[in-house]
């Protein structure tokens, strides 16, 4: 039985989506990554308004990633639905690294009103990989 692994994240794109070369170099699958900044506003112990920002890396595979590169740009508001994935790689200095990232399965984004007149929401979904057997390689990329 699979445990529940589902994430919903809203925030602002802090950079344009970028394609990441895979370690196997085959070019069969495409990996596109970007980072979303998500703010949480709260009152601190002194009663002052405070903000906590978390920067979360997002992975998009295949056609979903290609569409992200075409349509998404820094500064857009986005809502990502996906699952958490532990990524492991070897850094240039030889040390092992790990990071938690979101593998996107559904994306919504809003173009800023200033960038084309009327702001509107666009929805992108990963329809190719609706099952969990997406064929993602165990080692994604090297830095």
Our count of helices gives 1
The CATH class is: Mainly Beta
Overall number of structural domains: 1
Helical coverage, percent range: under 10%
In total, how many beta strands? Answer: 7
Structural class: mainly beta
**Rg, please?**
17 Å
Strands of the widest sheet, in order across it, are 1-3-4-6-5
Q: Find the CATH superfamily.
A: Nucleic acid-binding proteins
The largest sheet, given as strand count, sense and whether it forms a barrel, is: 5 strands, mixed, barrel
Give the overall shape.
globular
Any descriptors?
mainly beta; 143 residues; 7 strands; OB fold (Dihydrolipoamide Acetyltransferase, E2P); single chain; five-stranded mixed beta barrel; disordered C terminus; 1 helix
Describe the structure.
The protein is mostly beta strands and 143 residues long. It has a single domain (7-43, 50-125), classed as OB fold (Dihydrolipoamide Acetyltransferase, E2P). Helices cover 7% and strands 49% of the residues. The protein has one helix at 62-71, and strands at 7-13, 18-20, 31-43, 49-61, 77-90, 96-110, 121-125. It has a five-stranded mixed β-barrel with strand order 1-3-4-6-5.
